[in-house]
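Annual report, structural modelling task.

Input specification for the cytidine-5'-triphosphate complex:
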Amino acid sequence: MNMLKGKRVLLGVTGGIAAYRAAELARMLTREGAEVRVAMTAAACEFVQPLTFQALCGHPVMLSLFDQQEESQIGHIAAARWPDCIVVAPATANFIGKAAGGIADDLLTTIVMASRKPVVLAPAMNWAMWQNEFVQANLARLTALERFQIVPPEEGEMACGETGKGRLATLDFIIDRVVYASREEKDLHDETVLITSGPTYEDIDPVRFVANRSSGKMGFALAREARARGGRVILIAGPNSLIPPCDVQVVPVRTAAQMLEAVRKHAPEANVIIKAAAVADFRPARTADRKIHKDEGDFSLPLVKTVDILSELGQSKRHNQFLVGFAAETHQVMTYGSQKLREKRLDLIVVNDVSEEGAGFEVDTNVVKVIDNAGHIEQWPMMPKAKVAVMLFDLIQKHRANQKGPDKGRDGHSVRPSHRPGGGRRRRSKRGGGGGGGGGGESRGGEGRANGGNPEGQPA
Ligand code: CTP
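The model returned the following structure:
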């Protein structure tokens, strides 16, 4: 929510059957806080009425290069200068060819050519067109330029009845890439951020397990924000039903033991580690390899403790590693939070009272307090988890900047209090990862759902 607040996004719609999904994309962009203007090609208008976009965005749709009235309202040069980011979805093979070849023979191609702002292209087309050598060469030509970013199409059933790669990408991936492209400041560029999320499932037998109510939403919001800031993000995710952030390396795990193994593997390369996962503290002493029937056994379930992953990280953390824990509590919230911060040797702990309305598991909002290792407390009101992620990274970066100060060794812990979010960010503009391209065909199915990890975009 509000990941695009204050941003101006020009949505270009070209003529493919996936044009109808651009209407939903316009709505999602608006919901993220962006001001959206739409430019459609003549072919796009064969698929969707401009009025649809006008109703969704509240502005007349730009259609023609040669319409005197339109040009007098907002000329094509003004339209090219207006946005922070241009997104073309769907982008057909024809449009991609024109953009790559420097052809500007209609309003949209002219705007793209006249603009210096990032352009996100979400191709959609029939699988054979997608594989066409010219289409691929055109895409390669565009991706070689800093300004163009491609959100590759997905595999699936197409409107023409065939199956293959060419369906418009999941709209959430397109939004993620627009967020990334419109952020000018990339203060996590060249940094590796390791995040854990969700619950762990500890199996009793092949059909039953012990778990908790964590949804993984907070960890996913953190991963999305870290990526938007230019970080290389590794998300070790317990079982969940969420759409993974674009360009994030997702490592799916099920049990606490698997999470431990994945964390041990990836932690050495991480500059920032955030353990948002609700790891099971106990697991069944043994997992039956076949279903336990109700007339078997004595109805007791012997449990053994799992390894405390965060404590292990605290013991072994490098001098330039920043470690953040989470604590979900129902009572004596600050006492337990402070204790965990100290005992696990953390830099920050995010504490929430999960019994409070709008906080904790399953919901899209959170109410948190953040304690640092000098005992300073930040208390934030109820807000969307995406906003908590923004403020938490502002705080993390502020602490890290202080730690890097001339007289402040990492182990000295001489961190200044921070009662105002919005730490000094390094300004950097660089395009996101991901490659490939294509435009036109479309599946009859609804929105695609990626199962763990982005389709082609490993972290850039
Ligand atoms: N944690 C972990 N490994 C575990 C248990 C917890 O890494 N086996 C981490 C969590 O990811 C979280 C922090 O420790 O960042 C605090 O987790 P929480 O469940 O609140 O507390 P515990 O330390 O498990 O203590 P308790 O259950 O007694 O409250």
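Residues 385-403 form the longest helix (19 residues).
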